[in-house]
Amino acid sequence: xxxxxxxxxxxxxxxxxxxxxxxxxxxxxxxxxxxxxxxxxxxxxxxxxxxxxxxxxxxxxxxxxxxxxxxxxxxxxxxxxxxxxxxxxxxxxxxxxxxxxxxxxxxxxxxxxxxxxxxxxxxxxxxxxxxxxxxxxxxxxxxxxxxxxxxxxxxxxxxxxxxxxxxxxxxxxxxxxxxxxxxxxxxxxxxxxxxxxxxxxxxxxxxxxxxxxxxxxxxxxxxxxxxxxxxxxxxxxxxxxxxxxxxxxxxxxxxxxxxxxxxxxxxxxxxxxxxxxxxxxxxxxxxxxxxxxxxxxxxxxxxxxxxxxxxxxxxxxxxxxxxxxxxxxxxxxxxxxxxxxxxxxxxxxxxxxxxxxxxxxxxxxxxxxxxx
Length: 372
Ligand SMILES: [Ca+2]
Ligand SMILES: [Ca+2]
Ligand SMILES: [Ca+2]
Ligand SMILES: [Ca+2]
Fold this sequence. Notes:
Strand content: 25-35%
Bound molecules: calcium ion
Order of helices and strands: EEEEEEEEEEEEEEEHEEEEEEEEHEEE
Oligomer: single chain
């Protein structure tokens, strides 16, 4: 059963259908009204048939089936007597806008001059359903508008084929067309036959139809935003060896974000489901780290958003007074100075720490020393 705008001169869509029960044979009927456009009887089960646009000189699609060897026009006239393209599936495989043929594991193209189908591509793998030789699937699921084929190896592997032939035509993916999108679904709920577009591709070669799709919800551009979530502060002071309190930044109106200048041991893991960054970990180094988050994929009109935070990591085991220090540790005699000094210790590097191990800015305390 093939559903598309098979006859561009009959309003709407048409169905090309072959029938198992004699004497019905095959018919082309109007999809909306069911009106028979043409039909012929046959003597038994008409196993399969194809509607495909294999020749641009004959307007619209060409129709053929297993009932006989003729190929018909959509007006029911014999287009080729005792000649028909390969039957099973139609497929877009080469660069032009006409249909190629998919049968079993072979993709071929109708050669109108020689009145035969010539092999374009021979695939590895197996088809399904014995003599029906249908693929696991055919349809536009990857890359450009040409269609992919899925076959199997009879055991555990799938083979997915896509064309490598260039095309000069650029258009939406076929799944943008609702008839095609539905075709990929309904054709695969039973005896699968290939999906068709809801319009005549070759006949629209100068301007492909705009997809009749309406997006729900508000899609006006908005500036990218970085929103803090969770318990942990975006700026934390912790001791080396401890873990930070995890926290999250949600990214809004952008595709993702990058983070720069995190201390080793702290990660910002991207969660594609929630579009957010999860900060966690245990810093492996001491020091002050001002990190910056920058969104990516934000709307060009507004530019990307940035936001900063800070990790202050203190090494509580840092050497305070090296045993060999000769850096002028001196006694201090006044009470006020002693009190002051007791809050500060200086190590061999010349850096001054308070008793909690925090680095003290030296310029404020020049000349203050401690005797061990
Ligand atoms: Ca039509
Ligand atoms: Ca045609
Ligand atoms: Ca083609
Ligand atoms: Ca494709």
